[in-house]
């Protein structure tokens, strides 16, 4: 695969790439207040789910296009970039129309080559950075296949997000880390930026710090962490989100071994 090094397009220098923000954009006020606090704590790339792939129907499925307008409004006031999840061609078109800076593909999409191909085709001719989360199931070939489909569509600002793998067992983590699968991807494609999503591995905000440190010990290139102005009241993934202040503490506690960038 032809992949640009992270340092070629990320302006955070040799620091780990940090993306933080709410699981979901809920209201313009929630998104603005969260982004502002994160900005004041040094975060420059905000994540926000606009379309949410919920396991069961009848739960909050995201705001959609209106949230893209909120993002545009916030970017006029704060010097931040935004990253969102896209799961089909229409999401890609809208994300590009509203100038979203970074896209990611969720774990439920990575399992489906038809979906990935549709997204890849919609991205042709664009230069936007795209991160691909590992598939729900521990299948390295499927993860690599998704990255290859995007790369073949001309996406070279490409990276991987390790968010853990589904399990039916009741264990400490919501998703098993299975670090060796991500490390195998890092070994095969050393130039591929690899960031860790401790929030979706953990499912529990108390575990975010230790997972983040583990990722730094394994020389990951960065972290994507869910942060909400009022985590307990979040409309999705309430148990795993941290306040911007707690996030700052977590980030300050991390021992950074070395950067790959
Ligand atoms: C998310 O990032 O909020 C999300 C739905 O993640 P995943 O695809 O890893 O489950
Ligand atoms: Mn989430």
Automatic annotation (TrEMBL):
The chain holds residues 1 to 261 of 362 of the full protein. The keyword Transferase applies. It comes from the Bacteria. This is chorismate mutase. Its EC number is 5.4.99.5. It is an enzyme of class 5 (isomerase). Keywords: Coiled coil, Transferase. The keyword Cell cycle does not apply.
């Amino acid at each position: 695969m032809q992949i640009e090094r992270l340092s070629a397009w990320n302006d955070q220098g040799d620091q780990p790439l940090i993306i933080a923000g709410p699981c979901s954009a809920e209201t313009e006020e929630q998104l603005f207040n969260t982004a502002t606090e994160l900005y004041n704590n040094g975060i420059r790339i905000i994540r926000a789910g606009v379309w949410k792939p919920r396991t069961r129907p009848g739960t909050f499925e995201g705001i959609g296009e209106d949230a893209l307008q909120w993002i545009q409004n916030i970017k006029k006031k704060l010097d931040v970039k935004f990253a969102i999840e896209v799961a089909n061609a229409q999401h890609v078109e809208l994300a590009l129309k509203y100038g979203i800076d970074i896209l990611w593909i969720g774990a439920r999409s990575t399992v489906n080559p038809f979906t990935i191909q549709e997204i890849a085709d919609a991205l042709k001719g664009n230069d936007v950075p795209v991160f691909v989360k590992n598939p729900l199931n521990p299948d390295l070939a499927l993860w690599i296949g998704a990255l290859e489909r995007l790369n073949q569509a001309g996406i070279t600002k490409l990276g991987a997000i390790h968010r853990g793998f589904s399990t039916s067992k009741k264990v400490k983590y919501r998703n098993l880390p299975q670090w060796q699968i991500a490390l195998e991807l890092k070994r095969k494609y050393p130039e591929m930026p690899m960031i860790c999503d401790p929030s979706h591995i953990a499912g529990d905000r108390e575990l975010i710090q230790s997972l983040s440190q583990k990722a730094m010990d394994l020389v990951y290139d960065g972290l994507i962490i869910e942060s909400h102005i009022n985590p307990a009241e979040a409309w999705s993934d309430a148990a795993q989100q941290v306040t911007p202040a707690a996030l700052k503490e977590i980030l300050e506690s991390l021992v950074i071994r070395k950067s790959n960038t």
